[in-house]
């Protein structure tokens, strides 16, 4: 039977596994940070008070490039630049990683 380690310090990761853990922790941190920044910017710049879940959905849709047709409007807003730059950053990270 497989026994679990007593503490996290008992686990020995290979270099590859450490990088995978760092990647997922970094990605999770980046998603949370972008969600908070988008939610605050939307409230302050456009006066729209939406839930953090809706902001999280927007960030995930932008990062995965699945689209967000329900958020698109015919007008230009200050967050158009922010969402465009986020998309460029995610694309650049994917290419140059």
Quick structural summary:
The chain crosses the membrane at residues 20-41. Helices cover 66% and strands 0% of the residues.
Explain how this protein is built.
Keywords: Membrane, Transmembrane, Transmembrane helix. This is TrkA-N domain-containing protein. The chain crosses the membrane at residues 20-41. This protein is an all-alpha fold and 97 residues long. The protein has one domain (13-69, 76-96): Helix Hairpins, CATH 1.10.287.70. Helices cover 66% and strands 0% of the residues. It has 3 helices and no strands. The chain has helices at 15-46, 52-64, 78-96. Helix 1 (15-46) packs across helix 2 (52-64). It starts with 14 loop residues before the first helix and ends with a helix. The mean pLDDT is 79.
Which helices and strands, and how do they pair?
Elements: H1 15-46, H2 52-64, H3 78-96
**Could you tell me the radius of gyration in angstroms?**
18 Å
Spatial gap, N to C terminus: 39 Å
Topology, number of strands: 0
Low-confidence stretches: none
Number of helices: 3
Broad structural category:
mainly alpha
What fraction strand? under 5%
Number of domains: 1
Q: Based on CA inertia axes, which overall geometry fits?
A: elongated
In N-to-C order, the SSE pattern is HHH
Sheet bearing the most strands, described? none
CATH architecture assignment: Orthogonal Bundle
Overall CATH class:
Mainly Alpha
What name is given to the CATH topology? Helix Hairpins
Helix content: 55-70%
Overall mean pLDDT score? Answer: 79
